[in-house]
């Protein structure tokens, strides 16, 4: 037997052992993540694939061993070597500022019979027909909505109520005695401290006009133009629990969203207060009280890219995060945007969020030019109408996104492959479908949340 055959035969043996160990590990990880289908499929692969290599080794089938080994080497090369097409990200940015009065949350706050309502719809008659659709539905966390769950909805509302208490503290008095700390020192301290406070990732961006809404659309300052002297921002993410998101669009998703808005709000308030105590003007941007468009600020602070579902996609938790932002006059040390072409290329192929969206609000098509940026734009009216029907903020797209899988060795290995190779990205889309299903079922609510046993008649 020549050397090549000896190596092929030996490789088959080693690979059989490694493959078996890898698939059993995969099976266990899926099982601990409560992904029964994926776990069963990994077990089937562990039972059927490694024996092919083992039998080849045992019976010394030289040609088969050679083919299997060559296949293994080629696959590894394709996985490890940067290879193939990537989506092209340019430095484009929105041409016009967005008016907060046009976003769905602002339109939802308009009450029929009020001056504000009449004024808005006389200027935007096309939106009245669209908005009448969501007004026919029960509404967010409302009785008679599809996923009404008394305890979960009241818990979510308690969290939203608590965030609202923070609104009065987004801004405040500035210490007249100004610290002379350097921007490097303060930037590093803020990043480390934010993580200590519970942030997952933190970045700093220099602010541009397009980061700010043109006008306030919510609260007492409705209709006021936004004028800010702040030049820099701290953007951070907080993680949403995988277990709570997996049951989307059932009630756990709105509980978790509310809770993480509260966490993000708390951290932002602390950071803004801290900066003011050092003598620098600073403002927290929290749920229901924003001056900036958080996903755009977070993108430019290097925290991720904006994917097909229109949310910020972070490298390790995908869209399964909430965002917080603090703006300040202090010239912090800015980070660079990531420009993750591989992530956007994966989005081009994956389309899973579009498949599972119950209101068909996510496009299957390639990104289009919107306000100066090539991007995907969801149909926010039909999405919000579904929220008002469901009673939750849905989150099916977030729950099913392959990037939302937990941040652990198994999923990070897949993310590594996605980043490296276009061929691996194609394979990863099919792998995700194979293990989880093209349209995965919603997980059950966590055991401690009672099922919908109090649906109002
Ligand atoms: S589900 Fe797929 S297409 Fe949708 S955002 Fe996630 S990666 Fe992109
Ligand atoms: S939140 Fe739900 S309705 Fe809205 S885009 Fe995502 S999946 Fe569709």
The side-by-side strand order for the widest beta sheet comes to 1-2-6-3
Evaluate the radius of gyration. 25 Å
Low-confidence parts: none
Structural class by helix and strand composition: alpha+beta
How many distinct helices?
A: 17
Number of strands: 8
What are the bound molecules?
iron/sulfur cluster
Tell me the count of domains: 2
Helix content: 40-55%
| End-to-end separation | 79 Å
What's the helix and strand layout?
Layout (H helix, E strand, L loop, with lengths): L2 H30 L3 H24 L2 H19 L23 H5 L6 H9 L1 H11 L14 H17 L16 H15 L3 E6 L25 E8 L2 H5 L5 H26 L4 E4 L8 H7 L4 E2 L5 E2 L7 E8 L12 H10 L1 H5 L11 E3 L2 E3 L4 H11 L5 H5 L8 H12 L1 H15 L21
Antiparallel strand pairs: 1-2, 2-6, 3-6, 4-5, 7-8
Helix pairs in contact: 1-2, 1-3, 5-6, 6-14, 7-10, 12-17, 16-17
What does this structure look like?
The protein has 17 helices and eight strands. It is globular. It is α+β, with helices and mostly antiparallel strands. A four-stranded antiparallel beta sheet has the order 1-2-6-3, with helices on both faces. Strands 4-5 form a two-stranded antiparallel ribbon. The relative contact order is 0.14. It folds into two domains: 1-80; 100-399, no CATH class. The model has no long low-confidence stretch (mean pLDDT 92). α1 runs antiparallel to α2 (36-59), α1 (3-32) crosses α3 and α7 (150-166) packs parallel to α10 (252-277). Residues 309, 357-359, 361-362, 378, 383, 386, 394-397 line the site of one iron/sulfur cluster.
């Amino acid at each position: 037997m020549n050397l090549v055959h000896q190596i092929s035969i030996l490789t088959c043996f080693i690979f059989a052992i490694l493959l078996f160990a890898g698939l059993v590990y995969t099976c266990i990880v899926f099982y601990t993540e409560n992904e029964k289908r994926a776990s069963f499929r990994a077990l089937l692969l562990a039972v059927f694939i490694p024996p092919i290599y083992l039998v080849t080794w045992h019976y010394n089938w030289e040609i088969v061993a050679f083919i299997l080994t060559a296949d293994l080497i080629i696959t590894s090369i394709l996985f490890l070597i940067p290879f193939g097409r990537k989506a092209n990200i340019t430095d484009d940015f929105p041409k016009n500022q967005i008016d907060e009065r046009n976003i769905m949350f602002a339109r939802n706050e308009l009450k029929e019979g009020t001056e504000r309502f009449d004024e808005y719809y006389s200027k935007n008659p096309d939106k009245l027909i669209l908005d009448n659709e969501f007004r026919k539905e029960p509404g967010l966390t409302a009785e008679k909505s599809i996923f009404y769950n008394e305890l979960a909805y009241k818990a979510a509302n308690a969290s939203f109520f608590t965030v609202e208490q923070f609104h009065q503290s987004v801004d405040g008095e500035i210490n007249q005695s100004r610290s002379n700390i350097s921007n490097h020192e303060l930037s590093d301290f803020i990043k480390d401290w934010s993580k200590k406070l519970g942030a997952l990732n933190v970045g700093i961006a220099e602010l541009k006009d397009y980061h700010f809404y043109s006008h306030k659309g919510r609260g007492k300052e409705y209709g006021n133009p936004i004028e800010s002297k702040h030049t820099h921002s701290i953007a951070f993410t907080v993680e949403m629990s995988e277990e709570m998101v997996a049951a989307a669009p059932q009630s756990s998703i709105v509980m978790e969203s509310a809770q993480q808005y509260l966490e993000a709000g708390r951290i932002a308030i602390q950071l803004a207060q801290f900066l003011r105590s050092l003598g620098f003007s600073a403002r927290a941007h929290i749920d229901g009280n924003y001056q900036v468009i958080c996903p755009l600020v977070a993108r430019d602070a290097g925290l991720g890219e904006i994917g097909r579902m229109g949310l910020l996609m972070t490298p390790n938790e995908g869209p399964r995060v909430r965002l917080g932002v603090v703006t300040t006059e202090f010239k912090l040390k800015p980070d660079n945007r990531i420009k993750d072409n591989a992530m956007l290329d994966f989005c081009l192929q994956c389309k899973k969020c579009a498949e599972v969206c119950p209101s068909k609000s996510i496009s299957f098509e390639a990104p289009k030019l919107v306000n100066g940026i090539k991007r995907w734009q969801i149909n926010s009216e039909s999405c919000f109408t579904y929220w008002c029907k469901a009673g939750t903020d849905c989150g099916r797209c977030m729950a099913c996104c392959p990037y939302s899988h937990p941040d652990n060795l198994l999923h990070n290995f897949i993310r590594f492959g996605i980043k490296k190779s276009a061929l691996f990205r194609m394979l990863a889309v099919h792998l995700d479908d194979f293990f989880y299903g093209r349209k995965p079922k919603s997980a059950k609510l966590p055991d401690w949340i009672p099922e919908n046993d109090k649906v109002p008649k």
